[in-house]
Amino acid sequence: MKHAAGEVRPVVQAIGRNIQDLVEVLCSPSNSGLFLRFGEDTADGNANTDDAEGMEDSNANMDASSPKQVDAATKAGPLATLIHSCATNLPLQTPSYAALTLGVECTAPSSHAGFALRCVELGIKCLGRDLDMMLDCRLVGTESKVVNDSQEKDEGERCHAEKTGGYGNGSQIDAYYRAKFMLRYLAHLANIGIVSCKQQPNNNDGNNLSLLGLLQLLVQCACNAASSAASSSGRAALRRTSVILASLVLSTIPYLNLEDVNNMVVDLLEELETHVVGQSYSSDYEPGVGWQAILLNGELDDQAGEATAEDEEDDDDDDEGDDAPAPSCADTLQDLLRTVRKLVNPSPQNQVRPSRFALLGDAPWKTLKSNATTPDNMEDVEGGTSEELTVPMTYMGEPLLLDLVGSDEEKHCKCVPYLLSLGGGFSNEDNIEVNCRLLDGILYGRLAIFDAPPGPDEEENDDEDEEDAKESDPNLECYVKSYSLIDRFFLSDAIRDVLMCHRPMVNDAGADRSTAKEVAEQIWMLSHLCHPESLTEESEGEISSSNASDVSKGIEYGIVETLLSLIVQSAPRCCNVPASSAVNQHLYLARVLLELTKLKPSLVPRAIVLAISGMFEDFIPSLTPVARENLATWLAIHLANTDYQWPKSFWDHWAPYVASGRTRNSRGDFVTIVLHSMAGLSSDGAVAIVKDCLPPKSPLVRSVFLTTTEESSTSAAEDDLIDRFWNASHDPDSIRQFIISDEFTSDMTAIEDENEDHSMFHRSVWWRTGMATRALLHSISREKARVARLVERISNQVGNAVRDDPMISDDLKDEVDPTEDVLTDISDAIFRFKPVILAALARDADAYDSIATGRVDDDQLLLAGEVFILDQFENVIPSWDSVTHNVSIESLMKSKIVSPVAVATWTLRFHNSSPRVISPQWWKCVSLAVHSAITSVEGHLLT
Questions:
Q1: Could you give the CA distance from residue 258 to residue 264 in angstroms, rounded to a whole number?
Q2: What is the dihedral of CA 582, 588, 590, 593, to 10 degrees?
Q3: Binning pLDDT at 50, 70 and 90, where does residue 479 land?
Q4: What is the mean pLDDT of residues 517-534?
Q5: Looking at residue 56, which CATH number applies to its domain?
Q6: Cross-strand pairs, 863
Q7: Which of 50, 97, 279, 621 could form a disulfide with 299 if both were Cys (CB 3.0 to 4.6 A apart)?
């Protein structure tokens, strides 16, 4: 990358001074023997070995004739190992570790010379190991891994549960990030001159490589994998392999000095674009097509309510003739390729600095100084008498070459020879194959929530309304106008790196590391990695006096945009879908954004409000159901933890989308899920939301929480059943005998509902089952009625003073039995009264079979009865109580009262011939059904 001449940021100068002081301490005659020891000197076992400690075991060849491996950490020494660990785990300080490497190399006494060589050798050996682990190399036809990740012993590594949890690719994700950061560290060393950058090897065997030669080798491997995957005998694992290798190469290029290697880099990009990330590339996040898509192929047809129809009609008029496509969401690989293209071929106005992201060009090694002895015949400098002259520190040795593959005696990497063999000319001597199963945790979709930066030919004042809106928030205007697409990509990429590397963890020993608050602080540190908006001769001199907050003005919008884009694509909650990495965990991202809100209360909350406002208007109809659910549940968690602080105007604007009688729409579903999720997070349920969150007299109360009509009074027979279930504590067997007796039948001779077509799904067929189920759910019905009374009373109050009346809180407490736990009671009652429900179900089925004309399918008849039971649960359980809803369905399937097929049939409304709206939570119920079915099959196989 091209940098402005002589520019060193003040913070980088301070870092350089700190490194200078540290180097002097480490390399002093009294300390060098302690800190710089290596090889045999570290045999006492006190070296800090970090993730490289298990190199001997983790590089072990699965073949019986494998050569003896060398412990690379012991050979390199503790300081080199520590620098390697930091460089591969702390993504925001890589230039500092490169500068420290130079400082020790140039200052160390002759007895400990060769420090840079030891750092590079250790790094390249671990890079080979990580490549094998990242691509999950195995012996052909076996499950034997080339790299045994169980040998890693660092306290910062994932615990066993995290390695094997999720999709089982936790170790592969960690290896990818280590390889990414190691290549970045090598790029900085190449900029210093320690590692050869342009010198090309004489052969292509994976050894004696310059850095560009190493990147060219990885590009060749990626192209070979992509070509093999495209052939008739290719495997999907090879396609994913090509994508990962392309991502590594593209992630390294921005940190090179592109001014010197531009033509070579252009050739690499053309190869990748032709064979890997070109037109033939199909993203898993492609809207409406990819299986991980965030956006639908188009917007849902949401008809506007009365209060918003006129406004949206005006918007349609403004958009007439605008054939621009819906907001696109490319994955991070496509975004990375576009960004690197812009860096390699910057626009004329960005020749000095294509990006404001300072980490690309920070060079603390430029501030390091060393002492040089003056010649005897040279006059004293500036009248001084010293014989030493302070000069910039420079690496004086030969640039180092990289041995990625290694020799036959010490093999570092096995995947590269295998991938080279796919192109011919090499043989797969180690008999291995790659088994890269997933890209989760490596590639992500990106949702551009805020406006793109204006182009050079666009007019500044083309929309008065938009300009007025931005004048009210200068930070948003600054973000939109001064953060280019390049800046936004590197900001998002750095945020993902921080989220991954600083994630809170608990190791197998029980020790924890990091917190959500510390992660938020690390993310906000990115505000110190921004250059001023533009670089001119005048502004260059003002860098030292610039306020950091002014330099990074508007960065909170980029942070919120990135976190929300990750939240919408996180692993779905409450449907047994695991998260492959921390960056895919919904609750982790919600906690980090909450901590950022507390850390910067004057900036982040406003950015969140404007982001949600824009997403509600522009993205909600285009989001997939899972993405819309993720966004809604996150907003519920956020509001529940910030005392429900949300603008009243938003609730008023959203209310018409959920109005009674309104056709179901995506925005209405979003608002409903937000309110239902908030109610589920409070012990007081809907009462807390109506009392503390919604404005007084809000129509949302009736349209969301008071949607059910008044139920008719129960019959004497049903009251008798309720008494037997809950009050008299009759034995389930006696209740079963009673419900199938003729005495009970004679009490229910009149069913005022005609079943004209004699459908087995009609409610009159299952009247015994219905009464038994409603009696089972009596405690929920009573609780639902209590909450409805309180909600009605609170919603009719006017003014916050009346709504905060302590009498309402007293009524809330008085009506609750402190010993009652509805969820536990229902969960236990389902198993206890299972014989009663099944007896009623069998009795109703026999009655229908006896009067039906023709042959009745017994399986279909029982399915109809199970669906009816689920209907009764849906009618009784409050719509906002998703916890009770999910627990009840799981208990019904575990007790085998209903089958997973019945749950899927019920939630997708396959049993209903008349049009009926599918539940907004259909995919959750189907997931529960599939999970239950798989678990049941596994249980049978194990027994």
A1: 9
A2: -80
A3: very high
A4: 89
A5: 1.25.40
A6: none
A7: 621
CB 254 within 8 A of CB 2: no
Which of 101 and 853 is assigned the larger pLDDT?
Answer: 101
What is the distance between the alpha carbons of residues 303 and 317, in angstroms, rounded to a whole number? 16
Q: C-alpha angle with apex 238: 233 to 242, nearest 5 degrees?
A: 135
The reply to whether 552 and 694 lie within a common domain is yes
List pLDDT tens digits, range 405-428. Answer: 887 777 888 899 999 988 776 666
Residue 851: per-residue pLDDT: 83
CATH code of the domain in which 530 resides:
1.25.40.180
Strands (E) located in 590-693: none
Q: Per-residue pLDDT for 3 more than 50?
A: no
Name the token pair of 334.
């496509």
Number of other CB atoms surrounding residue 638 within 10 Å: 23
pTM of the model: 0.87
How far, in Å, CA of 459 to CA of 320, rounded? 19
Neighbour tally for 742: CB within 10 Å: 6
Question: Does one domain contain both 37 and 183?
Answer: yes
What confidence score (pLDDT) does residue 714 get?
75
Q: Is residue 377 part of a domain?
A: no
Structure tokens at 130: 């990580």
Alpha-carbon distance of 848 to 148, in angstroms, equals: 62
Q: Give me the domain span that covers residue 759.
A: 716-883
- Residue 209 identity (one-letter amino acid): L
Question: In this structure, are 92 and 193 located in the same domain?
Answer: yes
Pairing of strands 505-506, 512-513: antiparallel
The answer to whether position 108 is within a domain reads yes
State whether 683 and 811 are in the same domain: no
Same domain, 658 and 734: no
Token pair listed for 759: 């459908």
624 and 770 in a single domain? The answer is no
Identify the residue with better confidence: 605 or 72: 605
Does a structural domain hold residue 323? no
Angle in degrees, 0-180, between the axes of helices 586-599 and 604-618, rounded to the nearest 10: 130
Nearest-5° Cα angle at 333, 328 to 337: 95
Residue 301 lies in a domain: no
Number of domains in the chain: 3
At residue 348, the pLDDT reads 62
336 vs 353: CA distance, rounded Å: 18
Inter-residue contact 596 to 523 (CB < 8 Å):
yes
Q: Are strands 137-139 and 369-373 parallel, antiparallel or unpaired?
A: unpaired
What is the C-alpha to C-alpha distance for residues 60 and 74, in angstroms, rounded to an integer?
A: 17
Which residues contact residue 79 at a Cβ distance below 8 angstroms, ignoring those fewer than 6 apart?
Answer: 26, 35, 36, 104, 115
Most confident of 574-583, 712-721, 895-904: 895-904
271 falls in which pLDDT band (50, 70, 90)? very high
Question: What's the CA gap between 549 and 554, in Å, rounded?
Answer: 9
Tokens of 383: 């009248």
Residue 251 sits at φ, ψ, to 5 deg, of -70, -20
Q: Which residue has the higher pLDDT, 235 or 401?
A: 401
In the Cβ-directed half-sphere of 61, how many Cα atoms lie within 13 Å? 18
> How do 369-373 and 388-392 pair as beta strands?
antiparallel
Residue 109 has pLDDT above 80, yes or no: yes
Other CB atoms within 10 Å distance of the CB of residue 931: 16
Task: Pick the last residue of a domain from 671, 702, 733.
Answer: 702
- At residue 290, the pLDDT reads 80
What CA–CA distance (Å, rounded) separates 595 from 599? 6
Q: Which residues contact residue 17 at a Cβ distance below 8 angstroms, ignoring those fewer than 6 apart? A: 367
Q: Which of 473, 751, 729, 691 is nearest to 603 (CA)?
A: 473
Alpha-carbon gap, residue 259 to 271, rounded angstroms: 20
Confidence at 155, pLDDT banded by 50, 70, 90: very low
Which of 676, 702, 728 delimits the end of a domain?
702
Percent of the chain with pLDDT over 70: 76
Answer yes or no: do 427 and 569 share one domain. Answer: no
